[in-house]
Amino acid sequence: MQPLLYCLPYFAWLAQAGALTPAELLAQTPRCTHRCIADALAGLNGDLSNVASYVCENTTLQSELSTCTQTSCLYADQVNAAKLETELCAAFPKASRSHDVNRAIIVGCALVFPTIALRLYTRVTCTGRLWADDYATILAAVLLASLAIIDLCSAHLGLGMHYWTIPTGHGILILKLFYAESIIYTLLLITSKISILLLYARLFPVQTFLWVIKGLGAFLGCHGVLYVLLIAMQCLPVYTIWDRYVTDRKCIDVTAVAYSSGALSILEDVAILLLPIPQVWQLKIDRRRQLGLIAIFSIGSFACFTSMIRMKFVVQYNATFDATWNNVDIIVWSAIEQFTAMFCGSLPALRLLFIRAHRRASAEIRQRYDNMPSRALPSKNSIPTQSPSRGIWNNQAADTQANSACTGNQIGQGEDGIRVTTVVQVSQEPGTWLDDSTQNHDEDVEVTNRTRIVTRR
Predict the structure, then answer these.
(1) What is the pTM of this model?
(2) pLDDT digits (tens, 9 = 90+) for 147-164
């Protein structure tokens, strides 16, 4: 009976604010919350005047009251208790981190989706087709867009607010969205990694390396299928995952699933990061170019770092009683992880587009320079420079040079890769047919083999 004495100021204040008497409010308050309310109001000392500010302006007190209610009451009683607290604190501002979710999603979408579009445009214009890794990227982009929409909807419904301040009718909707997001996140995680493996298989078609790619791809497939099933069937019946009114349910340890999946994901990231290094090291090119290729493949290490940061928050908030507030860090870093993976995976493919733009700009600059009215006349024995406006070096040749990175006439018909080409260098020597002072037409031609690197992305 003693806990009820501490609750009387609370019920009296509610009775003054509303139309119900303290006895009626006491009857509506779940019995399991009486001890929690008594402990929370123990420091009030019977002062009725500031009960609202005492409870509603003290986040720590509200957190303790919510934790006690969640551990002492069934979900239906928790909802009834939340209604009373909502009425008590209706006039007070409510803290929210929803803007953190919105900002991360909007910035990520603004960076990643245009980059993916440019990647596909570059691939089509430069090679005339899309490859298997491009189609995997398209599928991953669809999943990423779905993930972004779910996060924005969740933030609108109350994700980012404290658990005890969420509108009562939004709780089940947020749980449904979080359930769908968990499945989509797992599918997206596997799809983005498989797209990288498909790229490796196209770049390094060595039989032994292809077997390694197939083995890791099979492991990723098993990882995806297993954890999608574990997440989808974490509770039976399935609807009890979001319908907490049902008490007769059987659930697995979701925390263990999150830990194991996160650890496997980090190990997979490290394996994918290290996979192409031996292949690059075996290429017969100079060390500087080898290090440059390794640097290109290492761009994906940023996604690995974001996975580790996300895992830190998963461990930190594994047993939280304020999930809608604390899980913001997990949601945000999950989104950043996937945005980073997609962005870093598509960025190297834009290299050909940058080269094309650079060559066109260089050709225009040379053309403007050559069209200047005052120029030094070439000497008699000088070889004509590559002027885009005179002689055999006409505008068409300049355009060909500018577009050589993205034309079907380039090496391999647009197929990126590492090719060995033959370069014929013609040098002018006195007494040869290039010299006007002699009638000797002997040719002095030097033929050299060079390695040309065109990186496929």
Answers:
(1) 0.75
(2) 999 999 999 999 999 888
